[in-house]
Specification:
290 residues; two-stranded antiparallel sheet; mainly alpha; 14 helices
Length: 290
């Protein structure tokens, strides 16, 4: 039955016809594109493929034509202030729902459908950008290219919503297996660095001491905290696989460029990865002398 419903939704994707259950079975809210994106993300998080298809197809039905016009008016990614990029809202949201749809198919092991959707995103809505609540834009077409590479290689890594917090969390989870599956740790960490390094450096440059006023205040430096954490994770991972020189390089970069990063411990406090990195370097130096 589930496969039948999915097939009907796939027909809707290509034929643009209204399904009899679409309005009653799912709550589309105010039908705005951003509302449908939010609901689609929620459905993806719940691994509810039928709901993902309902919300994403509704977004395509309502906004694909407008998004295509915006795409055709561009020859590069829109730049400038946040509001200038938001002006391309239809393109941004259609690109995002296509990414969500492709990822939902991938998670359901429907690779052919996933590949088709990812290529549609890349070929038709490549200049769309998706807003991250932490304060930056990411590019669904680039993310789709990464997913296609994963499908081609058979190695699947989960970047979630591409937020710094999620990917850093994935890096922490992969760290204990670094000796056996080290590549995953480094892929996650390097992804955080590539996406958030610029923001992290700006945050670091704005500080002359560790932020301390409150937990919420410290969390405002999210990019710095997560990039710093990832360099610490890389140092730990390199040590676990016997790459001491690379570990030293990662620790030193953390100390020199992201010194004021702080990591939240689930037990209820912050710790300072640069200080932990310095302790690791001191230990390595001591062992070398002995």
């Amino acid at each position: 039955m589930k496969r039948m419903v999915v097939s009907l939704l796939l027909c809707f994707m290509s034929a643009s016809v209204m399904l009899p259950f679409s309005a009653s079975a799912y709550n589309f809210g105010d039908f705005r594109s951003e509302t449908l994106v939010t609901k689609a993300w929620g459905a993806l998080k719940d691994n509810d493929l039928e709901a993902v298809l309902a919300y994403t197809n509704k977004g395509l039905e309502l906004y694909a034509d407008q998004a295509k016009k915006m795409q055709d008016s561009l020859d590069d990614y829109p730049k400038g202030e946040k509001e200038e990029i938001f002006a391309y809202w239809a393109l941004n949201d259609v690109a995002t729902v296509l990414f969500i749809q492709g990822e939902a198919f991938r998670r359901a092991n429907m690779e052919d459908e996933s590949v088709e959707v990812f290529y549609k995103l890349i070929n038709e809505y490549s200049f769309g950008q998706s807003w991250d609540v932490n304060g930056w834009f990411w590019k669904p077409a680039d993310a789709a290219r990464e997913k296609l590479a994963m499908i081609d290689s058979g190695q699947f890594l989960d970047f979630g919503d591409y937020s710094a917090a999620f990917i850093t969390g994935q890096a922490w989870k992969a760290l204990p297996s670094a000796e056996k599956e080290g590549d995953a740790v480094f892929v996650y960490c390097n992804k955080v660095v590539s996406l958030y390094e610029e923001e992290a450096k700006e945050m670091q440059g704005s500080l002359t001491e560790y932020p301390w006023q409150s937990r919420d205040h410290i969390f405002r430096y999210w990019a710095l905290n997560d990039v710093g954490a990832c360099y610490f994770i890389m140092g730990k991972a390199y040590m676990s696989i016997g790459e001491k020189e690379k570990a030293i390089e990662a620790y030193q970069k953390l100390i020199e460029e992201y010194y004021y990063a702080q990591c939240w411990d689930p037990n209820g406090w912050f710790w300072k990865p640069a200080e932990a990195a310095q302790e690791a370097l001191d230990e390595l130096e001591s062992l070398a002398k002995n």
